[in-house]
Design brief:
The protein has 17 helices and 20 strands. 31% of the residues lie in helices and 22% in strands. Helix 12 (322-333) runs parallel beside helix 13. It folds into three domains: 5-62 and 477-517, Urease, subunit C, domain 1 (Roll), CATH 2.30.40; 79-171, Diaminopimelate Epimerase, Chain A, domain 1, CATH 3.10.310; 264-451, TIM Barrel, CATH 3.20.20. The protein is an alpha/beta fold and 518 residues long. It comes from Enorma phocaeensis. InterPro entries: Amidohydro_3 (IPR013108), Metal-dep_hydrolase_composite (IPR011059), Metal_Hydrolase (IPR032466). Residues 51-516 form the Amidohydrolase domain. One of its GO terms (molecular function) is hydrolase activity, acting on carbon-nitrogen (but not peptide) bonds.
Amino acid sequence: MSDSKIVLTSRCVFTATDGEPFDGFVAIEGERIAAVGKAADAAPYIEAADEVIDLGEGTIMPGMVDVHTFFTGWALRTLGADLSGAADGAAVAAAMRAWKDAHEACPGAFGHDLPENLLDAATEALEAEFGAVPAVAFTEGAGTCALNAAAREHYGFTPEACYSEMVWRMMPEFLALPEVRAQYTDYMAMLNARGVTAIKEMAFDDYYGFADEMERREQAGELTVRVSMMSQPVGEGANLDYARAARDRFTGPFVRFSGFNRMTDRGVWAGLAEMIEPYEDTAEEGAAGKTVVEPPEWDLIEGELKAIDAEGFRYSLHCQGDGAVRHTVALYDALPKGSDGKLAHRHAITDLENSDPADLERFGAMGGICEVYPQILTLDKREDCLSMMRTQIGEKRLEHSWNRRGMEDAGCTVCCGTDLPLLIPSIGESIYSACGGYFDDGLPVNQGNTLTVAELLRAWTYGGAYDCLREDDFGTLEAGKYADICVLDRNAFTVDPKDARDIQVALTVSNGKVVYRA
């Protein structure tokens, strides 16, 4: 029932407005939070409730907001024929031929979960079977692929670079497939099961027709995740005409258009970041003695930024090296500000793998937003990562890596993203990595740069809502806001971060409805 009354009780309620949790309740009426309070004040709401859910020691908190997701990348993982059981190249070609015959209107032939040991055999088989028809078979996780010459020419990517930003020419084809559009239901269910009730979605260019699906789902009442779409220019520059139309088109409670997103540099570990000081003499060939190997398109970015800001949109720039962060902070600092010295619009920097504390202070003073990846350390063992970074930038500059503490102390608004599907949202992994500073093997790094649990949970909730321009609607547990709520299976504040990886979501509420229950 849309007007049902639900009361959640727990000895650990974290509103994201207070720094500490308390023994209390959250009362929900319809799609809104009716009241939040201490346990002693719960009785009238419990008596009037249709359902009371006692969560014990579970942490009741606002729904999580993931500010960097790619449905397009997630969809690639299950696109086309299932190749996981293929024994040879002929089996790969046969499975993809059957898929293509069932999808005659699709220009390409696709497959997923190709065994990596079949990459060479599959490439030969696809060439022989499909000829002038583009054919692409992705490995598990879509990290690489086999493709024929027609696909290389038609789509313009290679097995070495087949991530989301590179496969944009495929998007009009696969985003139109009925099964891909239907897959958005599974995508939302996966996010809800991890406590996520809102996302900032990277919607390349004009989203290649998928904005129609978002509109249809909102009108049909099918959405359980609120979406702020960000146009990431890849096939063309920032399309302000599309942005204006999308802003006017999406004004409902679930779907909005937020602005633009663009990459600047790439990873420090790979020697592709823009640094303030040159790379070490021991860095990989091509990087030593330079501050950047592949300079970002700063002139293009500056021009886009000025036009985007003038139209009232926001821009998120993805920076990994301290030089790229400094350059971006300077670009933002030149924009119009209010009388309080804050930026007129909410521009952000994403990732900030390495950053100089002075630039964080400058960014915080202008009201900057830092979109961090709190789980990122869990991808690697300590020395596998740090040995490469030491080679590139040395031990001293490593101290400025993953400096979430510096962002928080500088007054930046910190929020959390996963770069999904690179990572899948996990509050346990986030606490382990961003509060404990631990790599996958349990070894720490820069533990002075970490956040407290309260700061991290606020970043995952209020910070994300603020980043999406929706803090008046959700992101904290307050009466009148949408009832978007995440409940963890234990008190997250009493767990040692090193033991936090297995914290799970027990319950998720979206728009007043229970959408996930463990």
